[in-house]
């Protein structure tokens, strides 16, 4: 490959506070347009903002959870630019003294671990939302402005340009999402804009250290769009360079319907924003005691939890990674295991049938109709040989729409596994007598032929015979 991609992400994480960062307006999603506004967040003359202390707490916790240094003295700044969704004509943000900086997180792509450095985490207010008449700003005849989002608190998490592929960028953003969920500072609902990324992409010849000219793609709010936008932009820039052209530093938009990026405007540099200290807000002074207090309140984070599941329960690296990918799933798993369920079986059911049903119904695990306790009880029935794994699938399907405990479902539906030796032996003998061809093939060395006989026994017992007992008994009888 001739060129190497150099990628950095600026992730905007909307915080789950009840009120906005500098006023008392509600932050709830989905309200009627321009109803969660007041003179402060609309930037009317003569108003004075005040800092939401919860935002500062969340900023410090996010910094601690991503191995950052917390600055005991930080301040807000005015980032000056004009855009219709910015009523003050400046965004109150942080520039030279952010709340946290110089952190890192580890990612895992195709079994290879890599450390991604964080430049900084800073607090800022969100802008309003442009409501386009078309699918993107480029194909819209009109755009309206909804200021409900103006002043909603954000953390901007800025990475170093350490990412080299769309896969690494996705893994990094998934890790940031998981951490923010674990420390409970954001809902991270990407479909609601709680978590979105600006992507910086440049190319350079393989083996060189100098950075190429970068482009930025704004407000990417799904993992698929993140990967698609990066892959397209890498291909586009490579074609420009191969044709002898020069990449233009600019801001581009991604059109998911066409899978392409489109030019929006020339890319600004920091000096273009004329940053200045915010005169209406005091600096944020944080003591060491406060920092340690917030550190003590942090939960077990994804990497630590993953290591624990591998060590305590013997889960594979892959299983532990999936289970800990969200706090809700990790807590659900722990709750299932707390019932006495085998950890590996618990992981298999959560990643298998449970995940499949959640995806089909379009709900997350917190809304699962099968609680962790009920799933644990069902796994317990498998462990006691009351039901087989195959019968358990029927039981689970019934549990999805039936609130009864699995024991009652098994009893009411007559699904108790047959473990009586006499009953199984009768079915085995009948299968052997009725399938001389399969018997001959098995005795002739074709060991897979036993599968047909097992199938006949299971059919005769309506799937209720213990599969291990059936296999063992058939093997013993056919060995005679």
Give a short account of the largest sheet.
9 strands, mixed
Global Rg: 29 Å
Strand arrangement, largest sheet? Answer: 2-6-7-10-1-11-12-13-14
What is the mean pLDDT?
Answer: 90
Q: Roughly what percent helix?
A: 25-40%
Q: Any idea how many domains?
A: 3
Q: How far is the N terminus from the C terminus? A: 63 Å
Kindly name the structural category.
alpha+beta
Strands, count:
16
Basic shape: elongated
**What share of the residues does DSSP label as strand, in percent?**
15-25%
Poorly predicted tracts of residues: none
In DSSP terms, counting alpha (H) and pi (I) runs of 4 or more, how many helices? Answer: 15
What's a quick, concise take on this entry?
By secondary structure, the chain is of the alpha+beta class.
Give me the secondary-structure topology:
Blueprint (H helix, E strand, L loop, with lengths): L2 E12 L38 H13 L3 E2 L2 E2 L2 E4 L9 E4 L6 E10 L2 E14 L3 E4 L10 E4 L6 E7 L6 H17 L12 E11 L9 E6 L2 H20 L7 E6 L4 E7 L9 E2 L6 E2 L2 H9 L5 H12 L3 H7 L3 H12 L4 H19 L10 H12 L5 H13 L4 H7 L8 H14 L1 H8 L6 H11 L6 H12 L2
Parallel strand pairs: 12-13
Antiparallel strand pairs: 1-10, 1-11, 2-6, 3-16, 4-5, 4-15, 6-7, 7-10, 8-9, 11-12, 13-14
Helix pairs in contact: 2-3, 5-6, 6-8, 7-8, 7-9, 9-10, 12-14, 12-15, 14-15
């Amino acid at each position: 490959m001739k060129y190497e991609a150099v990628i950095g992400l600026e992730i905007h994480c909307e915080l789950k506070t009840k009120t906005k960062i500098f006023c008392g307006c509600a932050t709830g999603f989905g309200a009627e347009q321009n109803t969660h506004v007041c003179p402060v967040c609309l930037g009317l003359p003569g108003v004075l903002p005040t800092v939401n202390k919860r935002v500062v707490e969340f900023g410090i916790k996010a910094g601690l959870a991503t191995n950052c240094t917390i600055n005991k003295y930080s301040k807000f700044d005015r980032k000056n630019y004009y855009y219709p969704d910015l009523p003050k004509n400046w965004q109150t943000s942080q520039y030279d003294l952010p709340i946290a900086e110089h952190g890192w997180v580890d990612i895992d792509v195709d079994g290879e671990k890599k450390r991604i450095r964080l430049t900084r985490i800073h607090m800022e207010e969100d802008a309003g939302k442009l409501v386009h008449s078309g699918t993107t700003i480029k194909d819209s005849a009109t755009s309206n402005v909804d200021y409900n989002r103006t002043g909603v608190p954000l953390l901007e998490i800025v990475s170093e340009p350490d990412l080299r592929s769309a896969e690494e960028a996705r893994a990094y953003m998934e890790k940031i999402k998981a951490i923010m969920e674990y420390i409970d500072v954001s809902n991270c609902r990407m479909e609601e804009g709680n978590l979105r990324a600006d992507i910086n992409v440049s190319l350079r010849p393989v083996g060189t250290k100098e950075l190429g000219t970068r482009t930025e793609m704004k407000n990417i709010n799904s993992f698929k769009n993140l990967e698609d936008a990066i892959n397209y932009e890498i291909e586009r820039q490579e074609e420009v360079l191969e044709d002898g052209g020069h990449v233009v530093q600019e801001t581009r938009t991604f059109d998911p319907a066409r899978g392409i990026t489109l030019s929006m405007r020339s890319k600004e540099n920091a000096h273009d924003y004329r940053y200045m200290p915010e005169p209406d807000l005091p600096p944020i002074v944080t003591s060491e005691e406060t920092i340690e207090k917030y550190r003590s309140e942090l939960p077990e984070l994804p990497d630590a939890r993953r290591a624990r599941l591998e060590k305590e329960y013997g889960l594979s690296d892959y299983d532990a990674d999936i289970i800990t990918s969200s706090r809700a799933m990790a807590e659900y798993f722990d709750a299932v295991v707390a019932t006495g369920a085998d950890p590996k079986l618990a992981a298999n059911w959560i990643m298998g049938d449970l995940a499949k049903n959640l995806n089909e119904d379009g709900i997350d695990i917190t809304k699962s109709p099968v609680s962790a306790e009920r799933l644990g009880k069902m796994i317990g029935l498998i462990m006691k040989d009351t039901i087989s794994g195959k019968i358990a699938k029927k039981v689970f399907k019934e549990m999805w729409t039936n609130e009864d405990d699995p024991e009652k479902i098994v009893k009411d539906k007559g699904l108790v596994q047959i473990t009586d030796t006499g009953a199984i032996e009768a079915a085995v003998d009948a299968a052997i007598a009725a399938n001389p061809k399969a018997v001959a093939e098995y005795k002739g060395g074709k060991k897979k032929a036993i599968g047909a006989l097992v199938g006949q026994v299971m059919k005769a017992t309506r799937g209720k015979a213990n599969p291990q007992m059936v296999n063992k008994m058939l093997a013993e009888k056919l060995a005679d």
